[in-house]
Design a protein that fits this description.
Layout (H helix, E strand, L loop, with lengths): L1 H4 L1 E6 L5 E5 L4 H9 L7 E5 L5 H13 L2 E5 L2 E5 L7 E2 L1 H4 L4 H13 L1 E5 L12 H9 L3 E5 L2 E5 L8 E3 L5 H11 L5 E5 L5 H12 L3 E3 L6 E4 L8 E3 L4 H11 L5 E5 L7 H10 L2 E5 L2 E5 L8 E3 L11 H8 L4 E6 L8 H8 L3 E5 L2 E6 L7 E3 L3 H13 L3 E5 L2 H6 L3 H7 L3 E6 L1
Parallel strand pairs: 2-15, 3-14, 6-7, 10-11, 18-19, 22-23
Antiparallel strand pairs: 1-23, 1-24, 3-5, 4-5, 7-9, 8-9, 11-13, 12-13, 15-17, 16-17, 19-21, 20-21
This protein binds uridine-diphosphate-2(N-acetylglucosaminyl) butyric acid.
The site of uridine-diphosphate-2(N-acetylglucosaminyl) butyric acid (EPU) has 25 residues, from helix 2, helix 6, helix 7 and helix 13.
Length: 423
């Protein structure tokens, strides 16, 4: 992992991009779904697993707990007949949210789990109080010990009736997984509606879980004594899809995104229509282009089906190329405008005041040495590099590879001059 942290991406900007790009499987569906194997002794076969760093981290964490399997060509075959270690150590998961997603299923199966405090992107406070509150109410005793979370349950977890105070994606996923092996019927209210939660419900159902309310705010889970292994294809990644859609709106690009689910990115498509991009949806393909004469917009990030925080940074870059004053309000995370500092170095006119960014366009961008602070910021900066004049060097490119499969290669195939190098 250390090696990847010294990766740089180098872009010679202003090539016109055109062609087709295929969306990979969703990182944020694959993460909880891999953790869900802990609920069963059976064998699993996952397809369309994105080969990105955060998923490799989850895979290694499961191996460390005793899982056996293979991971290649986007396919994972895996089973964990016995849990041979209850510890998920820091060196395996420090950069990702894997450990918190392991906590629920592991304590549900095993009565004990010890995971290091979750990491992930430094995009603001990433609270986990709902996860811990829900698991405690299910009967797990949770303590914090030297940067680790330790959960113990004397017996099978018990069912709860729990209302999430606000929507949480991994919070919903964690309690949902734990509830499948709890005694009695759990009701989870105010659940997150992200498609990744629905895909997890589908996987758990195929494993033998009894869940009603898929894709609604209330999930009812009748606990089982055991669950079985199954096969599952991961849904397409709506954030990767949305990122390439926005690449298609830059300059004179024209991009067709395949393996797309238009419904997953409807909030983005609505905004693109407002600003004047041309979007054509046909079955599972989305074609996008623009004529460079775009109008400003006001957007705020909210839970699904509204505009996702994970596409906020990329939209910021696009809005630097729009004529007039645009506004973005970030409601989900309190430190998610770090890309604006780097975009300003490239020539963007952006003012950030608390949770609001004002973007004055259209400004030409010029190639600079910039630093990726987090995963989605790194995609926004790559987009900046693609339209900038001259050479852009992005340091800390490991962030990009945490969540985007082969992005330099996919962009090369569309005509970009981009490469990654290791220092
Ligand atoms: N929150 C709490 N308490 C909790 C949980 C969440 O107050 O116990 C708050 C958070 O502080 C935040 C809001 O609720 O303000 C939403 O957080 P959520 O729990 O939904 O985020 P998450 O589950 O940690 C997932 C994705 C993120 C994505 C967010 C929001 C995964 C593995 N991660 O995080 O993805 O930004 O939902 O949609 O699913 C990414 O892929 O780049 C990424 C950061």
């Amino acid at each position: 992992m250390g090696k990847k942290k010294n990766m740089k991406i180098i872009i010679q900007g202003q090539n016109r991009l055109s062609g087709t790009v295929r969306t990979a499987g969703a990182k944020n569906a694959a993460l909880p779904e891999l953790a869900a194997i802990l609920l069963s002794k059976g064998e699993f076969h996952f397809q369309d697993v994105p080969e990105v760093e955060d998923i490799k981290v989850m895979y290694r964490a499961l191996q460390n707990l005793g899982a056996e399997g293979h991971f290649n060509s986007n396919s994972v075959k895996i089973k964990i007949p016995e849990v041979t270690s209850e510890l998920v150590p820091r060196e395996i998961v420090e950069t990702s949210r894997a450990s918190i997603l392991i906590l629920g299923p592991l304590v549900a199966r095993n009565g004990y789990a010890r995971v290091c405090q979750p990491g992930g992107c430094p995009i603001g406070d990433r609270k986990i109080n709902y996860h811990l509150d829900g698991l405690s109410r299910m009967g797990a005793e949770i303590k914090e010990e030297e940067h680790h979370l330790v959960a113990k349950a004397a017996k099978q977890l018990n069912a709860i009736d729990y209302t999430f105070p606000t929507k949480s994606v991994t919070g919903t996923e964690n309690l949902l997984m734990a509830a499948t092996l709890a005694e009695g019927t759990t009701i989870l209210r105010n659940c997150a509606l992200e498609p990744e939660v629905g895909d997890l419900v589908q996987l758990l159902t195929n494993m033998g879980a009894d869940i009603t309310g898929k894709n609604t705010e209330t999930l009812t889970i009748k606990g089982q004594t055991s669950l079985q292994g199954t096969s599952h294809r991961i849904i397409p990644d709506r954030i990767e899809m949305g990122t390439y859609i926005m690449v298609g709106c830059l300059g004179e690009n024209e991009i067709i995104v395949e393996n797309a689910v238009p419904e997953f990115v409807q909030s983005l498509l609505n905004i693109l229509e407002q600003i004047g991009c041309y979007v054509t949806v046909k079955n599972d393909t989305i074609k996008v282009t623009a004529n460079g004469n775009l109008k400003p917009v006001s957007v705020e990030t909210l839970p699904y089906p509204d505009y996702p925080t994970d596409l906020q940074a990329q939209l910021t870059t696009l809005l630097t190329q729009v004529n007039g004053i645009s506004k973005i309000k970030e409601n989900i995370f309190n430190n998610r405008f770090q890309h604006t500092r780097e975009l300003k170095k490239m020539g963007a006119a952006i003012d950030v005041d608390g949770d609001i960014a004002i973007i004055r366009g259209k400004t030409p961008l010029s190639g600079q040495t910039i630093r990726a602070t987090d995963l989605r910021a790194s995609a926004a900066l790559v987009m900046g590099g693609l339209i900038a004049e001259g050479e852009t060097v992005m340091d800390n490119a490991y962030q990009l590879f945490r969540g985007y499969e082969n992005m330099p290669l996919k962009l090369q195939q569309l005509g970009a001059d981009i490469k990654n190098i290791e220092e």
